[in-house]
Amino acid sequence: MPAVVVLGAQWGDEGKGKATDQLGAATDYVVKFNGGNNAGHTVVVSGEHYALHLLPSGILSPGVVPVIGNGVVIDLEVLFREIDDLAARGVDTSALVVSSNAHVIAGYNRTVDRVIERFLGARKIGTTGRGIGPTYADKINRIGIRVQDLFNPDILAQKVTGALAQKNPMLVKVYNRRAVTVADTVESLLEYADRLRPMVADTPLLLNEALDAGRTVVFEGGQATMLDVDHGTYPFVTSSSATAGGACTGSGVGPTRVDRVVGVAKAYTTRVGEGPFPTELDGPQGTWLREAGGEYGTTTGRPRRTGWYDSVVVRYASRVNGLTDLVLTKLDVLTGLDKIPVAVAYEVDGRRVDQMPDNQSDFHHATPVYEELDGWDEDISAARTFEDLPAAAQRYVLALEDLSGARVSVIGVGADRQASIVRHDLLPGERTLVRGR
Ligand code: GDP
Ligand code: IMO
Ligand code: MG
């Protein structure tokens, strides 16, 4: 009954999509458990690029049942656009199952997301502007709209009326916007209800029964540990639980059923949006990393901030998620560097600290303590075994493994599905990289 969680160990965009896709052929269900269309996962199959936002990456493997769990917030227009775009490229999405308890992003929450950012000015979070934060706020505030509400127009109208009783005074009096009407909101929410209805199911029941029957379930995290609302660099975070516990609350599968928790980390670090980033490189080296790694957002196209590998961050991710394995991606991007600095600790107000500071201000003041590792010049993109890597690249991986709190089971050497080295299979008893199905 393998249940494997795949999540980000840094600030997102580590290559979770590729990691999930690689497991695809050996997987029966792939579950998105948090976030919404703030996520952007690029998967490359035989040179073809697919950018996935709301659909779990496993959707590209025939025979896998993709599931949108209760922990997700759904923009229905984006969901159906993504489904239609994939269908136009010959990808069968007909098996998609959507939780009846997932929340729906109403138009007013996209507006609220953008006006709040504007009002925050210099203190903005740098959100993706997709309405994610306000929709989760409504969920916690118990005025959210759920998938199941769309199938009873009277109940939907009641819930929208309740939500707007709070939203409209804020939009009008605080943010100087026009009030939103119940009728318009209900109408736009109902636009996709008939298309959605056949996909909706009791997904916690479905997934637990699948595990009972010995099926393989992969839980695909959106965002990452350092963007998690509890464990990330609050308030510069997203509004969902992107850590391992979120896989349970966001899917209705208990922690005792999870076999593996796989953290995905880049061989360096990137971040999109505002917030602290100790190993960030502002100068030409940062630009070099951005260009070498193609570090532009899959969702917003924003240039990603870049920096060296921060083992304090990944050690922290190992701890708060209970990581069993790491997938180390984009090792190929570092080819050509003479020396590669890696942060092994921080200095905070003159003191050396080896663990993530618990206090926000300390983290904002942290400066990295670097160790320099030897680089390599050889093209590693064709490497398929650890021994194929040059000795310095092997030493780099082993040093990171030593520093990061979990074994490096898979190494990414290119964007394509095949461009990986598997040291330990991620699915117990399965070949991780099964080609075709
Ligand atoms: P995600 O959000 O975690 O799924 O990551 P993104 O898709 O946003 O960003 C990762 C980017 O790196 C994508 O463009 C991937 O195609 C690419 N990628 C993933 N793994 C590797 C790798 O090992 N090497 C290289 N060169 N690119 C990779
Ligand atoms: P994937 O799944 C990188 C960042 C935004 C912003 C903060 C809050 O592709 O790794 P939000 O719109 O969620 O309220 O924005 O979180 N962010 C991401 N950064 N990758 C992502 O997703 C992200 N999703 C949100 O840039 O700083
Ligand atoms: Mg991404």
Question: What is the fold's blueprint, element by element?
Answer:
Elements: E1 3-8, H1 16-23, E2 29-32, E3 41-45, E4 48-52, E5 65-68, E6 73-74, H2 76-88, E7 97-99, E8 103-104, H3 107-120, H4 132-140, H5 153-174, H6 182-190, H7 193-196, E9 200-201, H8 203-212, E10 217-220, H9 244-249, E11 260-266, E12 269-271, H10 284-293, E13 305-307, E14 309-310, H11 311-321, E15 325-329, E16 339-348, E17 351-353, H12 360-365, E18 367-374, H13 391-404, E19 407-412, E20 420-422
Parallel strand pairs: 1-10, 1-11, 2-5, 2-10, 5-7, 6-8, 7-9, 11-15, 14-16, 15-19
Antiparallel strand pairs: 3-4, 12-13, 16-17, 16-18, 19-20
Helix pairs in contact: 3-4, 5-6
This protein binds guanosine-5'-diphosphate, 6-O-phosphoryl inosine monophosphate (IMO) and magnesium ion (MG).
Quick take:
This protein has helices at residues 16-23, 76-88, 107-120, 132-140, 153-174, 182-190, 193-196, 203-212, 244-249, 284-293, 311-321, 360-365, 391-404; strands spanning 3-8, 29-32, 41-45, 48-52, 65-68, 73-74, 97-99, 103-104, 200-201, 217-220, 260-266, 269-271, 305-307, 309-310, 325-329, 339-348, 351-353, 367-374, 407-412, 420-422. With 437 residues, it is α/β, with parallel strands linked by helices. A 10-stranded mixed beta sheet has the order 9-7-5-2-10-1-11-15-19-20, with helices on both faces.
